[in-house]
Amino acid sequence: MGWTKVLRSLQSDFLKRLNSGNLLHTQEQGEHSELTIISGERLRQLRDFCWQMAEKYKRAGTVRDVFINNLKGKLGEEVVKERLADFITEIDYEKKLGGDGGIDFTLTSNINIGIEVKSRCGFFNKVRWSLSVEEVRKNTVVACVLIQEEVNEAQSEYHLIFAGFLPTQMIKLKTGKIYFGIEQLLYGGGLRFYLEEIQLGDIQENLINLPRNQVMRQNNKQISDKQQKYSYQLSNKNFRANQNNHQQQNHIILRPKQDDLYIELADKCFTNGDFATAIDYYSRIINDRNGYQKDELYYKRASARYQVEDYQGTIDDCSFAIAINTSYIQAYNLMAQACYQLGDYQQAIVNYTEVIRLNPYDDTAYRNRADTSYDLGDKQGAIEDYAQAIKINPHDSYTYMNLSEGSKLIENNPRVYQTKSQIKLETLTDANAYKQRGKNRYDVGDYLGAIEDYTQAIDISLQNHSLENEVYRIRGDAHYDLGNHLEAIEDYTQAININSQDALAYYRRGCLWYDLADKASAIADFQTAAGLYQKQGNVAKHKRVREKILDLEIEASLDILDF
Known about the structure:
Elements: H1 2-20, E1 35-39, H2 40-56, H3 63-84, E2 88-90, E3 105-107, E4 110-121, E5 129-132, H4 133-138, E6 141-147, E7 157-167, E8 177-180, H5 191-200, H6 236-250, H7 259-271, H8 275-288, H9 294-307, H10 311-324, H11 329-341, H12 345-358, H13 363-376, H14 379-392, H15 397-407, H16 414-424, H17 431-443, H18 447-464, H19 469-482, H20 485-498, H21 503-515, H22 519-536, H23 539-560
Parallel strand pairs: 4-6
Antiparallel strand pairs: 1-7, 2-3, 3-4, 5-8, 6-7
């Protein structure tokens, strides 16, 4: 069917123009346009109609929610109606009690040919449309519209994009729903041609030899473990405004005996996350106080400034604190972190080195200096510092992990093997010790050794009747990384049997099912994990798993789209 190849090629060109904002646009009814603009009296009439429908069907939700949903649908229908004009006939809502019954238009010349319009808001490369079995059965075509603005009562103009269409003959759906993106649609300019051919009976029931379209999916960004960003973003102007505001409201005039009270207030604001007010109080005290514990005040204000990402202000205050107290380890450490955030890695290393000079047993300073050296490209220096941090604190799994990661770029690094040997020679007596050593061995890539230790921890726990599901889960991770899929599934399943609320075990098993190409089992486990994360209030992980489910459903949809 050569016409489908043409429409797919046109769709690819359309996506490029959509990305650049250079769309075809005409206001002539019955002619193709990629962009439709609705505003003014036309929009007012749509709103009035949707409010009427909202009152009529408010049992389906709040009146406003029903209004918004109806308006989304009507906006999409306006696009198709303008493009096809008198070639189609709109369903009479008054004759369809309860709505349109899943059909929005029929051909004027043949009421048995139904057209459904699906409208969605969002970015074109992320938005997804869906169809149910019933919708596929009732309609010949689904037309998809992308709404660029947020739909609400106050929006004065909408820019609507005719994203494309799909013939339902191409969808082999027996149960559930199918999800698809804009890349999988046929070019909207071919819709009228397709309907005319259907009307004439020239398009066969079985659309064969259609090319498979590669889905362009946006990669999920891993939720980072970086520090949470606070909403208090202070410019100098805003900072001065805050100072003036507090002066007018509180009329604070500091006296020497009142300093401790305001320090306490500032500390409390800091603890409660009100960093802007904390900075205000610390500044007043610093300006009023002469000498006594001023280094500590500078350090406290530096800490508050760091929280609002005022890194240069942090460095300045740490410098003032160090000028007063040249052995102020915390100030050197905080200044190093601020330098790192500004990308000044060399100065960060200088400050971490000073921390180590003042306290040679600070494993965290060695680890932070190692991280910074690694980012500068000094892999050997990073490995040396990681190894020293492990010598000081052999139970820090994060450092083991980074040592292993850094060593990948330097073959046969003796410090890594020395560290592995050090782990192996530890004398262990209880399950927790085996678990910790197993984790350390896992972090340096010794998966077989990790499995040995986890197995020992399980055996001891079984004897003591103190078995935890976590041990099975992390042993499953080691099996997973070794490619022992069956053993990994058994361990994840055992972890779930012990604790059915272990969302991570469901998630990891879902990933394994996916690797084994069992998409149905993967989706089932991901859905359970998402539900548990939602109950636990873990919004970030719930969102990440839901995005993974959507990607899988789209992949599964490719299997039932006859491309």
